[in-house]
Design a protein that fits this description.
The protein has 7 helices and 13 strands. It is of the alpha+beta class. The strands form 2 sheets. The chain has an 8-stranded antiparallel sheet. Strands 2-8-13-10-11 form a 5-stranded antiparallel sheet, with no helix packed on it.
Length: 275
Amino acid sequence: MLRFPRKRTGRARQDLARLMLCAGSVIAMLVMSPVASADVAQAGRCVGLTCGSPGDPAYVPEAHGLVPALSGLDQVAAQKQSGFYDIPAPVYDGSVPPRVVVYLAASGQSEDMPASVRELPAVTDLQLGAGWDRSGGTLVVIDRGLRYVAPAQTATASRRSPKARAANGVPIHGCQDRYFCQYGAQDFLGGILTWYGPTWYGTGWHNLGGEWNNITSSMVNHRDNGDSLMADGFEGGGTRYCAQQHSEDSRLENNPIGDNAASSVALLPSTDDRC
C-alpha cells in the first residue's frame, strides 16, 4: 500500500520558515555588504587614530565616536576648527581605502591638541622651523607615525639648498632623522606626507589614496634603518624608485618613475643597501 507523506504541521512549517529566513539573511549579507568585504580585504596594517586599545601608547580615546566626515586631507586642512575628522585613508592596504579618523591641528590652535595625540611620535618629533610653525602651521595627524603638513606652510622653505640647515640643526626641507618624506612639489615644497621609520619599516607595500596618489615630486629618506621604495603602480607594481637611506632628491622628473607618479610606498627593514 502506497503511503504519501503527511502534510507538515503548523510547528514544522514555522521551523522551516525560520530556517529559510536565516539562510536568506546570510546570503543577503554576503551579497549586499561591501563594507564588510572591504574590512576583510583590509586585514593589513591599521591606519588612523582609532587603532590600538586602552593601555596602548598609541591609543587615542577621543578619536572613538561620531566625527565629521570629509573627502580627504586637503579638505581637512582647509577647516578652521581643530578636531577629529573622518576621511578615506591616504595610506592603506588592499584594494579599497577604508575610512580613518585623523586629527587636525588648525592654524594657531596647536595648544588645543589632546595629550593622547600630542604624545604620538608623529607629533613629538616635530620641531619649530622643521616644516611646521605651531603659531601658523596646519598639521594633520594621520596615525602614530604618519602626518601631513599642509602646502601653504611648506612654501616658506623657499628654494634654498637641500643641504642648508636651520638654526636648530634641522634640515631646511623639514624631514627629520628616521623619517621618509614625500613632497607634493619639486624642491621639497608643497604638502608633506611624512612616514616615521620605526613604525612603518618592514610592513610591506602600502597604497597611496586620495590626493596623495600620483602626487610626489620630491622626496627625502632620512631613515637610519633602511632604504625606501616608491612605485607608480599599486602594491609595488610598475616602475619603482629606490631611495637609499639618508638620501634626497629634489626632482623626481629626472628618474624613470617620473614626476607626480608614486602610487605605493614600502620602507625596507634592514640597513643593507638595496638600491
